[in-house]
Amino acid sequence: MKDKMIYFLQCKNWSENHRYKITHKDIKVFRTEARDFITSNGLFEARQDDIRLRFVVSGNILDKSALYALEGDKNLDYEILKMNNDDYKSTNQKEHNA
């Protein structure tokens, strides 16, 4: 797998106003599931530097423990991708009406 990157994405579209936040436990589960996938699918030939894990969230829903876990791993990062739920609903309705 020379010169190839493998990306694992975990997406969460949770409300910022909700009491649930992503914690270090969620980050650990994601990391473990990605590692299990690598093991079960024979991706060992990929170098550790060729594997990237990214948590994509819809807002500021990471608690301090999650941020700490993300900072401690050079192959794991996060991105905030703001979602407009009205746009999502209207797009979803168009698909059902088509």
Protein described:
There is one protein chain. With 98 residues, this protein is an alpha/beta fold. It has one domain (6-84). The chain has three helices and three strands, in the order βαβαβα. The protein has helices at 24-40, 64-71, 85-97, and strands at residues 6-12, 51-57, 76-80. It has a three-stranded parallel sheet with strand order 1-2-3, with helices on one face. α1 (24-40) crosses α2. It is elongated, with a radius of gyration of 16 Å. The chain starts with 5 loop residues before the first strand and ends with a helix.
Global geometry: elongated
In spatial order, strands of the major sheet run 1-2-3
Order of helices and strands: EHEHEH
If helices are DSSP runs of H or I spanning 4 or more residues, what is the number of helices? Answer: 3
Radius of gyration: 16 Å
Number of separate strands: 3
Quick rundown:
The chain has helices at residues 24-40, 64-71, 85-97; strands spanning 6-12, 51-57, 76-80.
What key attributes describe this structure?
single chain; 98 residues; alpha/beta; 3-stranded parallel beta sheet; 3 helices; 39% helix; disordered C terminus
Write the layout of secondary structure elements.
Layout: E1 6-12, H1 24-40, E2 51-57, H2 64-71, E3 76-80, H3 85-97
Helix pairs in contact: 1-2
